[in-house]
Design goal:
Length: 90
């Protein structure tokens, strides 16, 4: 069991006791959720492009130009598929 008066964890314990559930402002919560969703969306596209690029480049018989073209095409199609829609103003 953890020591309640451990000086190494005193600051963390003070922060944990100061936390109030439901105390976050709704606009901060919505902004945090939007940021997370945007980072997940665009990060996934970047990982997919990188994975396609490396796969096409390093497979037997692959070359750099085919990999670059494939990754750019995927990036452009993904950009237009993932960009915010004009009518999505909730």
């Amino acid at each position: 069991m953890a020591d309640a008066h451990n000086p190494a964890t005193a600051e963390a314990d003070a922060d944990a006791s100061a936390y109030v559930r439901g105390g976050m402002q709704i606009n901060e919560q919505a902004a945090t959720f939007k940021l997370f969703m945007d980072l997940a969306k665009w990060g996934s596209l970047a990982v997919a492009c990188l994975l396609l690029f490396l796969t096409l480049w390093f497979h037997p018989g692959g070359n750099l130009m085919a990999a670059l073209i494939g990754a750019v095409v995927l990036g452009v199609v993904g950009f237009f598929a993932l960009k915010p829609k004009a009518d999505a103003g909730h």
